[in-house]
């Protein structure tokens, strides 16, 4: 988003945490909080240290910057971005746009914070109802989130716009698919974190059923996360010989995707739009996904969509694609075409610009 905004002539400043890769020659400026040696967590989810220390530092960094730069808009990503950005926006009289990626009532219960899932769901619902409406405008990454904010929380529809995220098409076109004749065994691939909400256990169980029919199949998991929580399940399902887990940075992901036969999206429920799904589509991989996180897919046209939690159905869908490479290739090509038409950052930015212009004109 920052690159696309910069390409349209906007001056962009990114205020973020101390963690992350250092990149050279960026068209925008990155401002990081001071290093916090005791905090190295990059996996999703809140922690008490992040809320009590990192987010305070982030708010201070944003305020210090806002005193130096005459910002027109604060674009706040996710709830922590809004929580940090709101005080600065009000103090400096800057319009704030809330980019909502998911709803906390559905996400928080998946994290371990010393509280019960019921308590976390209640807390998430409370934040969902009180915090978003304080933004000057809300950008929703899916229509599902937009409809929930309108129908369940009562936010004015005129205040919410669905703006799909984009895919860096150039990045995902740098690699090339492995020629069919060079593929010895079919490879299924999953990329992303291994948080409980990702449905990793369901994917592993489905893979076991695939192996019962196609013992030559392999599963590659590309992740920064530890497989330790799934060690016993992998052992019980006797998957070790056919499962590989590899760590890779963002720049290596296209090669892993292009070397795979099928991409898997086992997340059962997602208010937002999994970025891994868009990455899969950008590389033209045939995809099997549970319906709860498949808003970008059309069943049997750009992917195979399976009822939530149906492990048998997930395995059957994988086997169907393995048995019909021509159909699988058609799904992959269609998915790639969808991304190229609807999930391009340049298109998203033009829509964002109309929102920014509207907020700025209302201040005059």
Q: Averaging pLDDT over every residue, what do you get?
A: 93
Q: Rg from C-alpha positions? A: 21 Å
CATH superfamily annotation of the largest domain: Glycogen Phosphorylase B
In CATH, what is the class of the largest domain?
Answer: Alpha Beta
Looking at CATH, which topology of the largest domain would you report? Rossmann fold
**Broad structural category:** alpha/beta
Number of helices: 14
Low-confidence stretches: none
Tally of separate domains: 2
Helix content: 40-55%
CATH architecture of the largest domain: 3-Layer(aba) Sandwich
Q: What's the order of the H and E elements?
A: HEEHEHEHHEHEHEHEHEHEHEEHHH
Estimate what percentage of residues fall within beta strands: 5-15%
Specify the biggest β-sheet: 6 strands, parallel
The CA-CA distance between the termini, in Å, is 27 Å
What oligomerization state is this entry in? single chain
Strand order in the largest sheet:
9-8-7-10-11-12
How many β-strands, per DSSP?
12
Overall shape: globular
